[in-house]
Design a protein that fits this description.
It is built from nine helices and ten strands. It is an alpha/beta fold. It has a single domain (6-217), classed as Rossmann fold (3-Layer(aba) Sandwich), CATH 3.40.50.300. The longest helix is centred in the last third of the chain and has 17 residues, at 174-190. The structure holds 2'-deoxycytidine-5'-monophosphate.
Length: 231
């Protein structure tokens, strides 16, 4: 039987990391951990409880409640793992623009990151894992056997996100999405705690001009190399 490994997939927002990680986990029968969803659920909590208003976060209040906020993954009716906040499945609520516009503010809080990183390590411990995020290869799972750093041009990412929202029948403006992506890139790269960085041992995947099939082939080859040692 193949050994079970940890696969860390980091990179810029809207690069298709989640879809890639989810498909890979399914193929390998590994668990998939969407760490962005965890930060998004925390943001939904802050918005709902008015701890985050007009871009201002009440850091002290959020910190004091952290221990009581329950972030977990639960299975939906199809057995797919989805994000839950205090037992409520909030998967669809965390993908809209209100959470997307605010999540960088919550994600830069050191106390929030500390809680999320601990939780992420606990969920992954001892299992075959595919985890995607910004700091997985550098902070959360520095010993991951395979680290991928995904990137794509900002306009390509905005177009993909726009198409995705439109397909779901949601309101979307290309310019607003592009602005949001560029803003999140800046915040991800420049925050003091765990900024987005490529781990020195990560393999870079720029998928701007790749089809999904090309990307899958690339990824499968890298996984094969690690699992079976072919070079
Ligand atoms: O991957 P995503 O777009 O769903 O992530 C949402 C936000 O959470 C993104 O703006 C950056 C932040 N994030 C983070 O800081 N660290 C992670 N490990 C994952 C996401």
């Amino acid at each position: 039987m193949d050994k079970k490994i940890a696969i860390a997939i980091d990179g810029f927002s809207s690069c298709g990391k989640s879809t890639m990680a989810k498909n890979l986990a399914r193929r390998l029968s590994y668990i998939y951990i969407d760490t962005g969803a965890m930060y998004r659920a925390m943001t939904l909590y802050a918005l709902r409880n008015r701890l985050l208003q007009d871009g201002n976060l009440d850091q002290a209040a959020l910190k004091s409640r952290l221990e009581r906020i329950d972030i977990s993954f639960c299975r939906n009716a199809d057995g797919v793992s989805e994000i839950c906040l205090d037992g409520e499945n909030v998967e669809s609520l965390i993908r809209g623009m209100s959470v997307s516009n605010a999540v960088s503010i919550v994600a830069q809080e050191a106390s929030v990151r500390e809680k999320m990183v601990l939780l992420q390590r606990q969920i992954a411990a001892g299992k075959g894992t595919v985890m995607d995020g910004r700091d997985i290869g550098t902070v959360v799972l520095p010993d991951a056997e395979l680290k991928i750093f995904v990137t794509a041009r900002a306009d390509v990412r905005a177009q993909r996100r726009y198409n995705e929202l439109k397909a779901k029948g949601q309101e979307a403006s290309f310019q607003e999405i592009l602005n949001n992506i560029e803003m999140r890139d800046r915040m991800d790269l420049n925050r003091a705690v765990s900024p987005l960085r490529q781990a020195p041992d990560a393999l870079v995947l720029d998928n701007s001009d790749m089809t999904l099939e090309q990307q899958d082939a690339w990824l499968n080859q890298k996984v094969e190399e690690v699992l079976h040692g072919h070079c």
